[in-house]
Design goal:
4-stranded antiparallel sheet; 8 strands; about 80 residues; mainly beta; about 0% helix; Jelly Rolls; single chain; about 55% strand; globular
Length: about 80
Amino acid sequence: MRLWDVEPGHQKEDHARREYETVGYVIEGTAELEIEGQTIQLKAGDSWVVPKGAEHTYRIKEHFKAVEATAPPAYAHGRDD
């Protein structure tokens, strides 16, 4: 599990989660999640899921704070992000 605490303008390049899925919950701020060609607007109180293997990217619109967990957990595959 990790805590996002990032400023506007932050963007993750397109990538696919190959070995795990991601589930998140927005604490504050706004962001866009583009997943498999669909854009989802995220705001405080929203949650999201990125299925295993899905192409996606995030664009942070306002100071963004969220928690994110992966399944299986990061330690299961020796990764820490």
